[in-house]
Amino acid sequence: MPFDFTPLFPASLPPPAVRWAGAPKYNFVGGNNDPGEVPLDGLMAAAQSVLQREGRTLATYGLNSGPQGYRPLRDFLSTKLKRDAGMTCSADDILIVSGSLQALDLVNSALLARGDTVIVEKDNYQGSLNRFTRLGVTAVGIPLDKGGMRMDALEAALQDLKARGVTPKFIYTIPTVQNPTATILDESRRARLLELADAYDVPIVEDDCYADLVWSGERPRAIHAMSQSDNVIHIGSFSKSIAPALRVGFVVAPWAVMSRMLALKTDAGSGALEQMVLAEYCAAHFGTHVPALRKGLRKKVETLMEALNEQFGTAAEFDDPKGGIFLWVKLPDNVDSLKLYQAALKEGVAINPGPEWSVDKDHSKSRIRICFASPSHQDIREGIAVLADVCRREFGVPTRSSNVAKA
Amino acid sequence: MPFDFTPLFPASLPPPAVRWAGAPKYNFVGGNNDPGEVPLDGLMAAAQSVLQREGRTLATYGLNSGPQGYRPLRDFLSTKLKRDAGMTCSADDILIVSGSLQALDLVNSALLARGDTVIVEKDNYQGSLNRFTRLGVTAVGIPLDKGGMRMDALEAALQDLKARGVTPKFIYTIPTVQNPTATILDESRRARLLELADAYDVPIVEDDCYADLVWSGERPRAIHAMSQSDNVIHIGSFSKSIAPALRVGFVVAPWAVMSRMLALKTDAGSGALEQMVLAEYCAAHFGTHVPALRKGLRKKVETLMEALNEQFGTAAEFDDPKGGIFLWVKLPDNVDSLKLYQAALKEGVAINPGPEWSVDKDHSKSRIRICFASPSHQDIREGIAVLADVCRREFGVPTRSSNVAKA
């Protein structure tokens, strides 16, 4: 008679996971990257040289670098963040973490308590929204336009909260290639955001995970770089620029917050081999690898946009993104993207339904997120054709595809 | 004027960390290993071959293996756990985690709520005790003797709790090279433990992190292997057998618990490169590497025991351990190990004071944990001599060292 663990589970536990059944054939979900763009030779050479030189430090937790992570990787980041994002921070201001998701967990644990309120872009990263929900934190959504978070709406929300006696714990923003809208907040809006943050005494959490993937290679200065009052916690990652299965991200934070995050980071350090290999590789090759990666991603999104135009015609509305790995697509109002998601999955096509990526379930009902970095060009074309067929069968749209009228 | 984050911190937050000041000269704390025993050539070769063959899968979260971790590593573990520990489990029963600390967090989160009670060995791993404290869980300590957890005392505690209407959520045990006592629970006690667990309807969490380091190479069957009712969650690690800075551990659990842990593991997978390199290396070399490592560790502990005998004489009491990386030492009753810890640290010697490794602060007051794997033989001798000097200065003992009477 097997022991029954069920009565032991606390009531607050999330529902159980289902068994993994393998990836769908046409996989347009998850922040996966292009397998062809993994810099294998460079990573292999980096592994050899760094292990040869200092592999024996693997015998020590945290290497010889202490709890904030491998020092040469923090040194690389300090230089990179200055060069690319205009940020002034030293290795001592940087904490290496096991992917930016751990950064979110540490920031949330250090600052949030049940019942708190945060401000977020209305359409947002599912992983962040789910975290706030699990913590019992209210996420107030600010609408976006083609320029990202609307500052008039942010000001109104701050005023409204203040009138109700609510001080949000922080403004969580993905300003550079926003997830899922792919919008980029320009520097004038960033300046306004900082003014509002100062005026209402609310700090900012800047999630900059996609910032390396702006097609032009030119990104606005980080909000962290523009702040005069050290009120910005900055989060980044190597998942999008090198490889997502390497779980290496980072947080830049003032010591007041850093010292609290360190006290909460009771994992005896993040994976050392990945940190060592990344530091070795990136110091020499980051600057040439990433532009090549961006070119490949740009070609992928062009294939995706062509396929959508061909298969959906005017039924699929989207803006040509300025960077990233996903497209946020508006389908006709009668399309329920949660139903479309279920129906498409049965045909081997995985997409993200809008309501899972937004605090506004009505606004996002007919929207979907399509990740384009991982599937091949051919799979993008085939998968979007299947998606259009499913959508037509379920919702009667698109009525035309491949320039042919459909029943 | 810098932004003040202080008012934002929730009241429940642990105290802030202090800035890392580097490792002490004589470092007898932490589960660090012998730098000379890191199998560098093997790890380099493994990195090359596995990256060459399947490195492109790094572009996909979780590789092609799903959320339970890199499949070849789980396959290796399935075989290893059968061979070494007598366990019958398939890759589907195994979850790869970012070090066994994440395993503890997931097990605790899946099973514990504030106010719960667990049963533990009285002297215990600080990381586990701290976790229970932070969660607001009462840890009831069971005394140990030379054979590990005393089953008569466990039975009495279970009876006592039952009489008080308390059902412990689980019995947490480190049965094979217990931390810090280095005791090994033999199979007859394991059988009795399972009887008691069945009788009182309490499951067991078996933390087997040190089990590879039994000098003889022969370990009792895992409690998991002996259970008839699938009531054991088994935790293991590669930190002690390969290298601690690689953050790779694992949990074996029935699906009822596994599915809950998976729902709680929202980190998008554990580090893939470390999993890949370990799987590649271990499949070929684990069986030859670990016996060599054990030999080296045995020599280290012999140096430590000689140094203690020479410097402390009869003032230091300990049992010759049957494996592991630490020694649990009893000093004379007047020694306050928390004070000794502070004084020794000033002289560059780090030890673990007993009260941080026990639920019984009186019992552990004059005890210390000394980790011997990382320091060189010379540093062990020098560090123990400094420790004896500090101890004599602070507490008047040992009165003799190096066979010479001291003032």
From TrEMBL, chains A, B:
GO molecular function, one term: transaminase activity
CDD domains, alphabetized: AAT_like
Superkingdom classification of source: Bacteria
Residue ranges of every copy of the Aminotransferase class I/classII large domain listed in the record: 39-386
Cofactor: pyridoxal 5'-phosphate
UniProt cross-references to InterPro entries, sorted A to Z: Aminotransferase_I/II_large, Class-I_PLP-dep_aminotransf, PyrdxlP-dep_Trfase, PyrdxlP-dep_Trfase_major, PyrdxlP-dep_Trfase_small
Annotated GO biological process: alpha-amino acid metabolic process
Record bears the keyword Transferase: yes
Pfam families, alphabetized: Aminotran_1_2
This protein's UniProt keywords: Aminotransferase, Pyridoxal phosphate, Transferase
Family (UniProt): Belongs to the class-I pyridoxal-phosphate-dependent aminotransferase family.
Assembly description: Homodimer.
Protein name per Swiss-Prot or TrEMBL: PLP-dependent aminotransferase family protein
